[in-house]
Amino acid sequence: MNTVPQAAPAPIATRPTMIEFRDVHKYYGDYHALRGINATIKAGEFFSLLGPSGCGKTTLLRTIAGFEDISSGAVLIDGKHMADVPANVRPTNMVFQSYAIFPHLTVEQNVGFGLRREGGTTAEKAKRVEEALEMVGLKGYGKRAAHALSGGQRQRVALARALILKPKVLLLDEPLSALDKKMREQMQVELIRLQRQVGITFILVTHDQEEALVMSDRIAVMFEGQIAQLADPETLYRRPNSRQVANFIGVMNFLPARVLTEAAGRIAIDVQGLGQTEIDATQAPGVITGGETSVGFRPETLTMLYEGQTTTERETPGTIEEVVYYGDMTYYDVRLDGVDSPVRISMRNVFGRPVLDIGTRTRVAWSAGALVLFR
Amino acid sequence: MKGQGLRLYAILYLVFLYAPIVLLPIFAFNDATIISFPLRGFTTKWFAALAELPTLHQALKNSLIIAVSSSVLATTLGIFASRASTRYEFPGKGGLMGLIMLPLVLPEVIVAMSLLMVLLGIGVDLAIWTVILGHTLICTPFAIAILSAAFQSLDKSLEEAAYDLGESKLSTFRLITLPLVMPGIISSLLISFTISLDEFIIAFFLAGSEPTLPVYIYSQLRFPKQIPAIMALGTILVALSVLLLTIAEYFRRRGLKKTGAKDTGGFL
Amino acid sequence: MDEKSRWHRFRRSEAFAGLTLISPTALYALLLLLAPLATILAYSFLTDGDTVTRIVWEFTFDNYITTWTQPIYRAVMMRSLSVSMMVTAVTVILAFPVAYYVSFHVSPDRKSLWLFLITIPFWTSYLIRVFLWKVILGYNGVINSGLKSLGLIDEPLTFILYNVNSIVLTLAHAYAPFAILPIFVALEKIDRSLLEAGQDLGESRLMTFWRVTLPLAMPGVVAAVLIVLIPTIGDYVTPQLIGGGKIPMIANLIQSQMLDQDNRPLGSALAVSAMLIVTVVALAFVLLNARFLRVKK
User: Fold this and answer.
1) Between C263 and A184, whose confidence is greater?
2) Would you say residue A7 has pLDDT above 60?
């Protein structure tokens, strides 16, 4: 398992604003790519733009960098409007999806490329290049030909090349998608460590929700050119504001429900398969979309009780339909009595507890605090 | 089994392809004024004779001037057009590119004739520069074909990265684009040069009193006595072409190694 | 939206950048290709003057009528068409196995060597190659003198030069590399796993070729056909040298009318008609081919 270094500086909310989007729209001809983006990104935070392909996240990133113009609205970096500021002047640097390492140059020529226009002696610049390489773990690679590197090494060169210029914001466009799983997990930890070390704002674009959850201070979930929800990972996971967001992050079970009464911050509901219960108004955070009312809960919030086991939570009976064994976890598809589709429950495989069989009748324990209401 | 049969066929095909060319050195060194078997003995006098022909030397000079100029012009025009067509969308793009590439599908005689009519109509004297005009016209589509491929294979984010790191559009072109497209530029220059050097029809009609090498050769073909010397000249030309091509291929492979790209097999 | 900012936005736009960039080349083509072509199109509808006034600005269809009805001109057009079709057929059919061999039976690191060898003849002087065929096929040429000295014939063969067949042979030899390359490129693009999938499902090798390889290689074959067909119709040198001046094709005819006979309108009409024929034949081939592929699917 990955261990994330825990020493976090000042809470996000108290930090100064680094990037501001004010009602940003972008059209490609008739295609409305960005539909009214409003958001602020704080200095020094690790911020992710998360969403499926085509949702506009890369477009939004590129408007920060200056590679895309916006049709209306404003983009501000460190308080300054970027409307007429070309990309090569902005205080941002980008790590491209393909890394864009110059194949005809060496590693140190790549890393030192941006220093060409800056003052300083050759010796000073060489030293800066060395330090940058050391920071990304490529000490001694300076003379290598850039085209002979592996994917992970290229990415580090791209990082060094961007960070050596001390930008205020580092933009990363799906930097890990080209790597294999092991390399990806390694780089995730690397990036977090790097961001803490350098201390600047990182903005990451990804379609991988696990990646966003692991690395980010805050995430903006985007669908179809709009930000659906902007929050820290835990809030997004526990209190998604819509079915769409709930489905995109992790796995969510849904059960049809009816709202009975609503008063004084408490909502009484009747959930198919679980029965009647009461939840807090904070557990219904979402926008009212007018769709079918349902209740959502994560697989790990339900527990399957073994023979003779008792619980303080509510119980409901069900039958096991499917068992998927994963080594450290087992996933059960359970058909609760009175419900059509099965729900997914995940159980840690604790030593001494057997894996249950398909067809077993079981009791499922749940509590109202785990439910999220969608309307 | 199937492979063997095909292999034999392919080799025979190559033999057929090279057969006439192989005759050149054979009869260039043959001591006879008529090209026929049996061979009569070794001599280098036909090569020596070439040194005595001032009109040949003048024609060669003309050809070289025209070929160098045409290849540089065609490649330059080609860089503009292929960069525009691979990186930008603009109204009329299809039509303009179609027009520019049209010489590829027009019979050369029509290009030559129509250009000739206009030049005569305006009252312009035919000279070396009129041939350069025509050659540039037909070489540019080839230059564009080669350069477009080179620009296409260039990752767009490389230029964006350079720009992001602070370079201007112009310096990005100079530091990143140009070096990476250089093999394509060299290819284009070489191919345009070769096309121009060998081109006959446009030169024939637009050269006026200053013939190019092919025009000169054509004029000598009606004199049987000159034929062995022409064989000698042909041998030299073929040897030069092969040399030029080998050099071009060598540089192409070297260019690939420098940037670590894959070999897709030739100037395709 | 005021005028100034609209222009300002256009100036910064992609369209402006693209048009500016392409303008030198486009201008060159407009002046030196489009304008001259338009000129001969105009000429073709005008009347021929006597030797002093070359063109009379009188609109007429006469030139086209002459081109399409006079037997001599029709004969030459037909000959050009049939020669180039024969050349194309021979060249492309003979080229396909070679392209197939290099694509499927040559190891990848040897492929560029083969291509190199195949294209070398292409880069040697076309004029010289045509001339070599004249030397080979001539009365006292290589074939005749060779066969004679081997004792196989007493009298030189006369049927091998100065006729249509020798023209076809020369052109087929000259354009052979043109045909191989596009077919090779198309064959290379074919996903090998498609062919293996066919075999895996029980197809014979011949069936795989007919049902998968050939249709997928068709774009290359079409390109090869067009690459050979179009230049050969308008070839000047080969009919002149190999035909002895007595078997003109359309290019020779255009030249003779435009310059020798000084009849520019008629020459222009011939040129325009030749372009029309080429376009029609090329289009016909492309469309037929598209139909063929659709039927196969």
Assistant:
1) A184
2) no
- Which residue in chain A is spatially nearest to B176 when comparing CA positions? A102
Mean pLDDT, rounded, for B77-81: 95
Check residue B76 and give its pLDDT: 95
Work out how many domains chain A is built from and give that number.
2
User: CA B191 → CA B71, B143, C112, C264, distances in Å?
Assistant: 8, 8, 17, 34
Question: Nearest-CA distance from C71 to chain B in Å?
Answer: 22
Q: Is residue A3 part of a domain?
A: no
**CATH code (residue A153):** 3.40.50.300
Chosen from B86, B117, B200 to mutate, greatest number of chain C CBs within 10 A: B117
Give chain A's largest Cα–Cα span.
77
Residue A20 scores a pLDDT above 80: yes
pLDDT of C77 over the 60 cut: yes
On the question of pLDDT at C3 being above 70, the answer is no
Q: With contact defined as beta carbons under 8 Å apart, do B130 and B119 qualify?
A: yes
Domain residue limits at C289: 62-296
d(CA A332, CA A321): 7
Cβ atoms < 10 Å from Cβ of C49: 16
Q: How far is A165 from chain B (nearest CA, A)?
A: 8
Distance, CA of A108 to CA of C3 (rounded, Å): 48
ipTM higher than the 0.95 cut: no
Please state, in angstroms and rounded to a whole number, the distance separating the CA atoms of residues A271 and A258. Answer: 7
Query: Contact C195/C213 with Cβ under 8 angstroms?
Result: yes
3-state helix, strand, coil in chain A (%, to 5): 25, 35, 40
Q: Where residue A345 falls among pLDDT bands split at 50, 70, 90?
A: very high
Same domain as A175, residue A257: no
CA distance B140 to chain C (A): 9
- Residue A262 inside a domain? The answer is yes
Per DSSP, the three-state class of B127 is coil
Q: How far is CA C20 from each of CA A266, A353, B82, B148, C23, rounded to the nearest angstrom? A: 66, 74, 13, 17, 5
Q: What is the pTM of this model?
A: 0.81
- Same domain for A151 and A52: yes
B81-to-B138, C17, C37 alpha-carbon distances in Å? 14, 12, 21
Q: Cβ–Cβ of B37/C181 closer than 8 Å?
A: no
Flag whether A278 is in a domain: yes
Q: What are the tens digits of pLDDT across the range A41-100?
A: 999 999 999 999 999 999 999 999 999 999 999 999 999 999 889 999 999 999 999 999
Is residue B267 over pLDDT 50? no
User: Which is nearest to A247 in space by CA: A257, A236, A258, A256?
Assistant: A236
Cα–Cα distance for residue pair B1/B3, rounded to 1 Å: 5
* C155-173 tens-digit pLDDT: 777 777 778 888 888 898 8
Interface probe with B: pick from A102, A164, A170, most Cβ of B within 10 Å: A102
Determine, for residues A103 and B165 on separate chains, whether the beta-carbon distance falls below 8 Å.
no
B249 touches chain A (CB under 8 A): no
Cis amide prior to B38 (ω within 30 degrees): yes
CA–CA gap between residue B206 and residue C255 (Å, rounded): 13
Burial class, A202, CB count within 10 angstroms (exposed 0-12 / middle 13-18 / buried 19+): buried
Let me know if domain B67-92+99-259 sits in CATH 1.10.3720.10: yes
User: Which domain does A323 fall in, by range?
Assistant: 251-375
Domain count, chain C: 1
- Which of C97, C124, C274 is facing B107, going by the closest CB pair? C274
Q: Are the C-beta atoms of C176 and C94 separated by less than 8 Å? A: yes
**How many Cα atoms occupy the beta-carbon half-sphere of A262 within 13 Å?**
7
pLDDT tens sequence across A101-152: 999 999 999 999 999 988 889 999 999 999 999 999 999 998 999 888 988 8
